[in-house]
Amino acid sequence: MANERLFYLPLGGAGEIGMNAYVYGYGPKGRERLILVDAGVTFPDAAATPGVDLIVPDFSWLVQRSKRVEGIFISHAHEDHLGAIGIICSKIDAPVYARPFTASIASRKLEEFGVSPSALRVVSPGSAETKAGPFSVTFLKAAHSVPEASGLLLKTPGGAILHTGDFKFDESPVIGESMTAETWKSSAGTGLKALVCDSTNSLQSRKGRSEASVGPEIQKLIDRATGMVVATTFASNVARIKQIAEAGRRADREVVLLGRALHRMLNAALESGVISGFPRTIDSYEAAKLSRKNVLVIATGSQGEPRAATMQLAVGKFHGIEVESGDILLYSSKTIPGNEKAVLRVINLMARKGVEVIDDSAEIYHVSGHPNEPDLEDLHRALNPECVIPMHGEHRHMLAHAKLANRSGINSLVAENGCLVEFRKRGPIIAEEVETGRAYLDGFELVEPGDSVVGDRRRIAQNGYVSVVLTGRGRKRVRFDAAVATVGLPAKDAEELELHLEEIALSEVGDKLPAPLNADEIKSAASRAVRREVSEIFGKKPVVAVKIVYRD
Amino acid sequence: MANERLFYLPLGGAGEIGMNAYVYGYGPKGRERLILVDAGVTFPDAAATPGVDLIVPDFSWLVQRSKRVEGIFISHAHEDHLGAIGIICSKIDAPVYARPFTASIASRKLEEFGVSPSALRVVSPGSAETKAGPFSVTFLKAAHSVPEASGLLLKTPGGAILHTGDFKFDESPVIGESMTAETWKSSAGTGLKALVCDSTNSLQSRKGRSEASVGPEIQKLIDRATGMVVATTFASNVARIKQIAEAGRRADREVVLLGRALHRMLNAALESGVISGFPRTIDSYEAAKLSRKNVLVIATGSQGEPRAATMQLAVGKFHGIEVESGDILLYSSKTIPGNEKAVLRVINLMARKGVEVIDDSAEIYHVSGHPNEPDLEDLHRALNPECVIPMHGEHRHMLAHAKLANRSGINSLVAENGCLVEFRKRGPIIAEEVETGRAYLDGFELVEPGDSVVGDRRRIAQNGYVSVVLTGRGRKRVRFDAAVATVGLPAKDAEELELHLEEIALSEVGDKLPAPLNADEIKSAASRAVRREVSEIFGKKPVVAVKIVYRD
Fold first, then answer.
1. Does the pLDDT value for residue A431 go beyond 70?
2. Which of A310, A449, A524, B520 has the highest Cβ tally under 10 A?
3. What are the pLDDT digits (tens) for B21-30?
């Protein structure tokens, strides 16, 4: 058994916040049996990846070894942990393990990709172990900002690893059970080979706060409100939504849920038994008939998403509801980096209507779902693993997290996506570097960042595009016609420009060329001439594509 | 004289941070003589306005009345106050007034647009008044984050207005003279008709801090550093750059300036006499030979700009300089909303190289150049104007600013871009709403947001583009050939796709149609068919342009 090894290989999530996907392997080198923990997505950037629908990990490494995959384990129901489950399950045939709420959300994702939900195995947390080849996996209850988050205890003949998933300490999490630094101690036992641990908030120096601390603040705000209150938060934060709704009911307000994601999440929470009931809600059109002081709207769109309910309310009437001067908009959420401008757009539109906006800057109406620096320190000490491997964080977060472990005298290793970490007697080392990356879901297709398609779109968005079709006729000497189409150029008269560029292209290639033609030469001559001309006229250098068609 | 009026009309900057441009008018209605205060730009967003170089105010209203424009006054040298001076001066023939440093920067902008710098009139602040039709304009010294910022006192027969420009209170501004709430009092006198006032920081509740408070903190940081120190800040903040350089020299470090904007700004400061000297600097290649602990680099790129020095250092060697583990990167700047992701990219690249990054979150290595809430209150009280008109701010900032004035018992009016505010006996009212907006500088051309060009680029970036050229032949019955070019579609084989779409287009239009042709019908049929086919294959709906060419 000397050549058996235990390894950890992040395919996503290590060096970024989002797109979590972690492989663990155990067995003889090259023949290890594998499990995947989480299959998350990250969201495209309209400037860097225009037209892309979702960004997912490049699973090629795992897909090439699909026969050795024993199971896929989903820690919780956030998109950055399960959004790619449909994609990976359409490529790998392995059971998917998740707790009920998570399974309910995952089931929809599988259907979207035409995968039968029969791959799903609903598991219970606690003592029950799931066998997956050499792995014995136990789901450990965790507090987080979504129901039924879990740490995963992975036992193998080579030792045990605790993969935390996303978690926070919370002695009063509103939904689910409380969690402290000691909660996992008895399950994890002593001699953990590694603690692979959430790094999102490793740069936050004060202790994390409880979900329950938010409710009374929201209650005070709603109690003092005289107009309608609109509260927005993450749809998956069922505990928060419940607290907001309860505060509204206590203040004698009818509660309206605006936005499909809210209904979807609440239904999943009810079906899976995460919550047994929810305060009474009414239809938005009914609410519109009531006095404003008797209405509380909970709306999607805390990140300024252009189609979500909050933005719709900022620009006009939505499902019968209209905000007006004297109303309050509460952000019970934080703004995720990159969304600042979109959120400010909503805030200013609301301010223009006279709506008082309570943003997240005071940090009293929102708490994070991740462990802060002191929380991480407490966990490190409670579990005292042989080493800490920071995951789920940008490089700066993982680095800070590693230093934190060292301060408690615990070994640590920063391993980014693609670093295969082997756990050896003397500690973990990066044994191999595996090619990883991202893939773009573009309509129905998965494309690689290296494929030209997204880069082409970025280039034509910056510079415009000219298509030149040269139609050649004649056997011995070829006579050309040109047809030019332009898009995205600042021409006052596009037709006139196209006629002009047709002349430019033709005069460059000459209209009677001896056969056989050197197509590449003609194309590049025409392309250069057209590009130069556009650049001289407009100061822009478009992408030019030349096509030669031959008709005799 | 009863029908003479005094008005204020923001064309940009009121309802946004950036793109400042304010018109004042005095005279008989419809024949008022006009001045423009500031001609600033705002920066495009690669997602919303791809390919756009700059965004400038729509000056049409002013250009239509150019004969009545008596002068253009530039308050200070920031891009959002003078970046559009070249554009407006290429359309309006009027003298441009600015203090020496500002004039030096403005001169370059004029040249870029082929305008002779002879339009520039360099003025001195203080008692000297500039006559511009019925306006007597005095430049009042202000502290800010760029040399020679100025408030403008505008005296007219209809009363005096103080237009603050950007300013802050600072009793030790490092460069230039100190400023308190009282500084402008004697010039402004009593009975100001209006204070038109900077609102950028109206939501910041604590008092603003002095530029001089930053120096000692930077000194401490540099003193404790053992490796190379790279400090990045705004190139126009000459006082900051001077403080950083001095701290470096005191710590026995040679100073290197990386980035062209830094050299440009320092030269302007030296030429205009804003500073009389600057600590010794050396060439970057010389510095590269020294011990790391003896080098301080001041670099452009505090906002994560991809081509600026800081990003270049994050990705590799730049002008001989290379960062490594043990070095420090200091952000002596704030991150402007919208730039968060770009800045985080630099921070993580630096962290990966082992560089310690000191960001602006502790707020000790940077101070703002704008007045905070208590500062505004002090100014309101010191000047006690008849009314406060908030400017330079998003709606939420202007609203908070207006409320602040009201709290001190001063009348206020929130007027966004396009609101023509008439100052009447009983107070200011919005007398007219003028059509305003933005224009995009796109290569050499100015295009309007309503023009299709930028929208087209955004659409093709999202969805891809298909150009279809149908070439018809025959007199009585027309036979078609099709040539299709695609870009930005996730096809494995673009040529094969194009052949397929040619067939689709032809089979839809039929290849023999009786003349005369209904071109619009043919185009829309072909376009629909191609779009539907692409949508079925790829799940994307491209922009399709069909062109009919007739060759007999």
1. yes
2. A310
3. 999 999 999 9
Kindly list the residues from chain A whose CB atom is less than 8 angstroms away from the CB atom of residue B467: 467, 469, 485, 487
What would the two tokens of residue B74 be? 């530039």
Nearest to A465 among B347, B487, B490 (CB): B487
| Distance (Å, whole) CA A391 – CA A399 | 10
| Contact (Cβ atoms closer than 8 angstroms) between residue B189 and residue B198 | no
- ipTM associated with this complex: 0.91
Decide: A339 and A376 in contact? Cβ < 8 Å.
no
**Separation in Å, CA A352 to CA A213, A324, A348, A403, B399:** 31, 10, 6, 47, 9
Structure tokens at A420: 């295969």
User: How far B395 CA lies from chain A's nearest CA (Å)?
Assistant: 6
Q: A-chain residues within 8 Å CB-CB of B487?
A: 456-457, 460, 465, 467, 543, 545
For A471, residues 6+ apart whose C-beta sits below 8 A from its C-beta are A480, A481, A482, A483, A549, A550, A551, B471, B481, B483, B551
pLDDT digits (tens, 9 = 90+) for B163-205: 999 999 999 999 998 999 999 999 999 999 999 999 999 999 9
Phi, psi of A56 (to 5 degrees): -125, 160
pLDDT for the residue A552: 66
H runs (alpha helix) in A4-49 = none
What are the b/e assignments for B336-370, b being 16+ CB within 10 Å?
A: beebbbbbbbbbbbbbbbebbbbbbeeebbbbbbb
Contact B414, B388 (CB under 8 A): no
Strand partners, B544: B466
Neighbours of B138 (CB within 10 A): 21
Does B514 score more than 80 pLDDT? no
**Per-residue pLDDT tens digits for A41-56:** 999 988 899 999 999 9
Q: How far apart are CA A153 and CA A166, in angstroms?
A: 14
Q: Which of chain B's residues have a Cβ under 8 Å away from the Cβ of A537?
A: 444
| Residue found under tokens 């090619």 | A435
Q: Which residue from B431, B420, B379 is spatially nearest to B199, judged by alpha carbons? A: B379
Tokens of A279: 């305060």
Distance CA B229, CA B251 (A): 11
Which two structure tokens, joined as six digits, stand for B216?
């000692």
Tokens of residue A528, six digits? 């250069």
The rounded distance, in Å, linking the Cα atoms of B391 and B397 is 9
- The answer to whether the CB atoms of B47 and A51 lie below 8 A apart is no
Q: Tens digits of per-residue pLDDT, A490-547?
A: 999 999 999 999 999 999 987 667 767 788 999 999 999 999 999 999 999 999 999 9
Tokens 């100015």 identify what position? B446
Q: Which two tokens stand for residue B517?
A: 């042709």
Overall pTM surpassing 0.90 (yes/no): yes
Q: Mark residue B176 as left, alpha or beta (left: phi above 0; alpha: psi -120 to 50; beta: remaining).
A: left
Residues B299 and B259 sit within 8 Å (Cβ to Cβ)? yes
* Phi, psi dihedrals of residue B364, rounded to the nearest 5°: -115, -15
Which element (helix H / strand E) includes B23?
A: strand B21-28
Record the tokens describing residue A54, joined without a space: 């979702």
CA-nearest residue to B394 within chain A is A348
Give me A180's structure tokens. Answer: 């402290």
B511: confidence class by pLDDT, cuts 50, 70, 90: low
Cβ pair B444:A47 closer than 8 A:
no
Q: Residue A524 corresponds to which tokens in the numbers above?
A: 């590049």
List, in order, residues 6 or more apart from B216 with CB less than 8 Å away.
none
Residue type, position A189, single letter: G
> In sequence order, what are the beta bridge partners of A498?
none
Query: What whole-number distance in Å separates Cα of residue A170 and Cα of residue A84?
Result: 29
The CA distance from B337 to the nearest CA of chain A, in Å, is: 6
SS3 call for A8: strand
The rounded radius of gyration (Å) of the Cα atoms in chain B is 28
